[in-house]
Write a structure and sequence with these properties.
Blueprint lengths: L1 H17 L4 E10 L4 E11 L4 E10 L2 E4 L3 E16 L2 E2 L3 E20 L4 E22 L4 E12 L2 E13 L1
Antiparallel strand pairs: 1-2, 1-10, 2-3, 3-5, 4-5, 5-7, 6-7, 7-8, 8-9, 9-10
Length: 171
C-alpha cells in the first residue's frame, strides 16, 4: 500500500514539474469533526486545463489524549488526499468547483499506564476512502490564491466533515 501511494505521489510530482506555469503550492488548515482537532498541511494545485485541477494534499492533525482510570490513550492522525476539481466557474478573480477524490487516513494509538509511565500497547491502522465536496478559490494577486473547501471523507461507515482554508503561491 505504501509503495502504491509513494508511486502515485511521484507521478503527480513529475506531471506538476512538466508544466511550471500551471501549478502552485501552499499551506492548508482544516478541522475534522471525527478527530475533533485541527490539522495543518501542505497542498498543491495543478491546472490540467481551464476546467480541471488536481489537488494533492498531506495533513497532520493535532494529537488527542484521553485519560481513563489508570491509563492514557494518545491518538495521532494524518491523511493524504488527491482531489480533482471541476471548475465550472473560472474567471480572473477566482474559481468555483465541486471536488471528488481519494484519501488514505492513518491512525496510530498508544496506550500508556499512568502509574508506571510504561507503554503498554501501540496500534496503527490505515484506511482508504473517498472525498466529495465543494470549494472556491479567490485570486488575491497574480501569484497568491486563497481557497475554502468543505468536503466529506467517507471511510468505511464513517463520514467525516472537513472544512478547510488554504493559502497557495502560484508559480
Amino acid at each position: 500500500m505504501k509503495k502504491l501511494m509513494i508511486t502515485a505521489l511521484m507521478l503527480i510530482g513529475i506531471g506538476i514539474s512538466a508544466s511550471a506555469q500551471n501549478w502552485g503550492v501552499g499551506f492548508n488548515l482544516s478541522y475534522c469533526n471525527a478527530v475533533a482537532e485541527p490539522s495543518f498541511g501542505i497542498k498543491a494545485l495543478y491546472d490540467i486545463n481551464e476546467s480541471y485541477t488536481i489537488a494533492p494534499s498531506l495533513n497532520f492533525y493535532l494529537p488527542t489524549t484521553e485519560t481513563f482510570y489508570k491509563s492514557e490513550i494518545k491518538d495521532k492522525y494524518w491523511d493524504i488526499n488527491v482531489d480533482v476539481h471541476y471548475n465550472f466557474y473560472n474567471t480572473d478573480k477566482g474559481k468555483l468547483y465541486p471536488l471528488a477524490g481519494i484519501t488514505f487516513f492513518h491512525i496510530n494509538s498508544t496506550e500508556t499506564f499512568i502509574e508506571d509511565n510504561k507503554e503498554e500497547s501501540s496500534e496503527s491502522e490505515g484506511l482508504f476512502g473517498i472525498n466529495l465536496g465543494f470549494g472556491g478559490q479567490m485570486n488575491l494577486t497574480d501569484r497568491w490564491i486563497v481557497s475554502a473547501e468543505i468536503k466529506y471523507q467517507i471511510i468505511e461507515e464513517e463520514k467525516m466533515f472537513i472544512p478547510a482554508l488554504s493559502l497557495i503561491y502560484k508559480f
